[in-house]
Records
---
Amino acid sequence: MRGAWWIGVAALAMMGAAPDDAGLPLDQAWKKARVDGKYRNLLGQFKAPEDRAECGEFKEIGAGPPKSLAGRKDLPAGAWVYVYPYWYVWRDVVTGPAAKLPHSPEQVTGPPDTPFAADVPTAWASLTPDGQDEWLVLEYDEPVVPAAVKIFESFSPGAVSKVSVFRLDGTEAVVWSGKDPTPNGRGMGVFVIPIKESEKVTRVKLTLSSMSVPGWNEIDAVGLVDSAGKTRWASAADASSAFGQPDRGSAAARAGGAASPMITIQNATQAAAPFPATVTINNAPPGISVRGLTPAASPSAVLEQKVLGLEADQRRSQREIEALRRRLADADQAIKDLKAQVEELKKSKKD
Ligand SMILES: [Ca+2]
């Protein structure tokens, strides 16, 4: 009996491992579908095992969709790659180093590089400060079992309302939702979300309640911490909208954003009160200059941004005053205590 049972298990294991049935392990399939980094920003993943008859184990067809999926209305436009049993649809064909436009989602790739709270071009900013709620999707080169997500919020923080990860079969799992604890008054902060997830993931999606947290809720970087504690940085990113790029992003962004006021980078920096205007330029990546970025600001948008910056500055000063008051009170008490001790000593000497 025992022998027969073992033979049965071995037969099942062989069937499971046979490439004919299961295809590649999903992390290998993901890398194969990316074709050595040629494609980035996955827009969708569709199961079509029957297409192996035509495509084999792997095929790049460029613009899709394939015949098997023709007629479906939910298919994104992009580059289609088949790795049995899935079609992967990519937004980007990488032909060289990615251009990092100021405030674009690509500014969230790589480690954080915005050293202080300010509206600077090294972080992602949405098209409008509060015109709509926003999303940001980060993609990582290496599929990992995640232990945490670290969100570097660099301006008007506190708007993240939901975080989800995408597993390698394309399914999305919400790992956190609620009120972002990053203090809005502090100007910047790092929001760390521990994750319990047993499957490997390659993408992270943030949802931001931008409408309910005033100002541009800017994100500088999003780290994906693996189960060994190593932090990975995104290699590609996409967002619902981007500052200075009214033509990209969702239909809602285009409809709602086109009429919204824009401000130039220079004005935005002046509005972020405590930092001098030169900060933006000094900290911008090489090659980025202020010239030709965005149309001139409307005066009301500049003033609005200036008020936000001054309000944040005022809150910071208020906290510093409160801290100084507490230190003064502590010092007063310490002096009183010491005086009392001196009196005690004098008294005991006399006695
Ligand atoms: Ca906002």
---
Amino acid sequence: MKTIVHLSDLHFGRADPAMAAILAKTVRDMKPDLVVISGDLTQRARKDEFKAARAFMDELPAPRFAVPGNHDIPAHYEPWHHYVLPFRRWHRFIGPELEPSFADAEISVVGVNTAHPWTIKGGQVTPLQAMRIQKEFNAAKPHALKVLVAHHPFDIPPNHPHDLIVGGEMLFKTLVEPGVDVILSGHVHEHHVGHSAERYRAAHRSALLVHAGTAISDRLRREANSFNVLSAGDGRVTVTPHLWDYDDRAYVAVEPQAFIRGAAGWERSPS
Ligand SMILES: [Fe+2]
Ligand SMILES: [Fe+2]
């Protein structure tokens, strides 16, 4: 059984430092096998925000990795940094990779960068990126759970104004053959678990589309701060959202959602 902690939308610059310290300790105590952060580590991609994000990441247990979100590219009023060197600060403070990955015998987790300077808020995946992802998943161990990490979502919670990712349908077609199992994303600041068969039709395949809320920032939409914990093994995946409790000043696990791998893809199962 593997445990993956899924954080997102930290938005340092609009983050609560005390909450960040509690979150880091909470995650450390869980002793996960992997921690992933699905983008928007900062609010305006400023140096001091990246420094704070780096310090937070250093408090998380390893292995861990992050992919960029649209807020991690400097704003238009810094045109040199926005258009010419959009990831210079990311590379300086977070790491050399925009699309890191992690693999062992049981899980293959691949990051994709969906934030591009030519898109304003929405995300995009290109055919070249899709081919790279396909190659990585094809190289995974035969029974490994295949997890994609992207900032922008491949599905949207009901009644939400955001657009779907550009290239999402193309990517899904590419991922049918290696059989991606789970897509972790953020951006909409609400936790949600969907099913790809409801959005993208693919015969005999489906992926769980898992959104995390904003873990520690005050950029709340319709719910409290949150993060997700995934437990995976033996053809089962359980997603447990953890929501911030304002009275106890702690993250509290709520309503785990369990899925079992069936002949036509993931099916809901009693947790
Ligand atoms: Fe965000
Ligand atoms: Fe975002």
